[in-house]
Amino acid sequence: MKLDSNNHSVFSLNDHLALVIKYRRKVINTAVSEKAKQMFMDIGEKYNITLLEWSHDQDHVHALFKAHPKNRTF
After folding, report:
1. What is the DSSP string of 3-41?
2. Which GO terms describe its biological process (predicted)?
3. What is the pLDDT of residues 11-47, one digit of tens each?
4. Strand ranges across the sheet with 14-20
5. Does any domain span residue 1?
6. Residue 49 lies in domain
């Protein structure tokens, strides 16, 4: 397992995010999923977030990503 580090710590933070459409409406297709994935990656570049996995179904998407501890606000 590869660990990340900064000046004061060593870490490996992986987060799983599930984004669900309101009322579970079936509106996600491949084109919508790819657009959302690209937007996630574009925003993630500014916050040092690396997308590891992305998958979708008709009513939700799953993202597994690696983040830096200073970017965690929750």
Report:
1. -EE-SS-EE--EEEEEEE-GGG-----HHHHHHHHHHHH
2. DNA transposition
3. 888 999 999 999 999 999 999 999 999 999 999 999 8
4. 14-20, 60-66, 50-56
5. no
6. 10-66
* Distance in angstroms (rounded) separating the CA atoms of residues 12 and 15: 10
Rounded CA-CA distance 66/13 in Å is 6
Q: Is the dihedral of CA 74, 11, 1, 45 positive or negative?
A: positive
The CB density around residue 61, as the number of other CB atoms within 10 Å, is 19
Total number of residues shown for the chain = 74
Query: 46-55: which pairs have CB atoms within 8 A and are 24 or more residues apart?
Result: 47/71, 52/14
CATH number at residue 54: 3.30.70.1290
